[in-house]
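help with this record:
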Amino acid sequence: QVQLVESGGGLVQPGGSLRLSCAASESSSIIQTMGWYRQELGKPRQLVAVITRGDFTNYAGSVKGRFTISRDNANNKVYLQMNSLKSEDTAVYYCHAEIFSRSYWGQGTQVTVSS
């Protein structure tokens, strides 16, 4: 069973920055795509950013230019650098991995942007 463990969430003021990390229990060599999704209370989970094994990236329009996804294949990790945070970025952030067309999820980490 693949395990994904997130860290780095917390409380930050508007305009601040946070960096989320996700460690996978499997080698990056078999993980096709890794990404971050977020879910606000009472709303469906939505894509934030994804990165392929070849480092192709895709972002939600609302975070383009503010968030950066990166991948450390040597250590089986994916990161989400979040800058210029806004109150509407408040959500639970989930790490996702696709392995042989199967989806795996982390337990989620809370990000709260508030003054």
In short: The two ends are 39 Å apart (CA to CA). The chain has a mean pLDDT of 95.
